[in-house]
Amino acid sequence: MEIQKTRAALEAILFAAGAPVPLRDLARAAGHDEDTVRKLLNAMAEERRESGVRIVQAGDSWQLRTNPEFFWAINALAEAPPKRPLTQPILETLAIIAYRQPVTKGEIEKIRGVEASHAVNKLVEYDLVCEKGRDESVGRPILFGTTERFLTCFGLSGLGDLPPLSDKLDELRRQAEREVYRDDD
Predict the structure, then answer these.
(1) The CATH fold of domain 2-70
(2) Residue 167 and residue 4: Cα distance in Å, rounded?
(3) Measured between alpha carbons, how far is 66 from 13 in angstroms, rounded to an integer?
(4) Model pLDDT for residues 67-113, shown as the tens digit of each residue
(5) Side by side, which strands form the sheet with 61-66?
(6) Amino acid 102: pLDDT
(7) What topology is assigned to 88-184 in CATH?
């Protein structure tokens, strides 16, 4: 009976955590040594292999995850809206904000050469950018910067992981030169 309670406790902890839980924390909470808890978790994971919810190991941590085989059912229940594509103008605006932040809408418009309200509003709606304060210039315009969701969506640990801007400028210069030479033919 003791083992069944421990298994149930581990399952409850993993469910409540919603994120990977280190083995040492699971062992401490369950009141057992790490080796015993690891064996229990491995057995529970094997038993749940075909279940809708799995127990999976992630490094030295464990987590409850939905079985990807049943994504269709979850999606049907949630009636998830389709992914919102980032249009070229929105991507251009996002790039300006990412590399120049904090930046005002006026500065974005000066760089892009077009009005940027729609793109900035969509990026705020998608939680990719947010207000970062106010500029000290006349009118105290809003400063925009990227969010943690931006980093997550683009697989970045920080803004330092953005590709160097000079690489992009060199590529744009080469592309422009190819276009110019093509027009000369």
Answers:
(1) Arc Repressor Mutant, subunit A (1.10.10)
(2) 58
(3) 16
(4) 888 888 887 777 755 666 788 899 999 999 999 999 999 999 998 88
(5) 21-22, 61-66, 53-58
(6) 96
(7) Arc Repressor Mutant, subunit A (1.10.10)
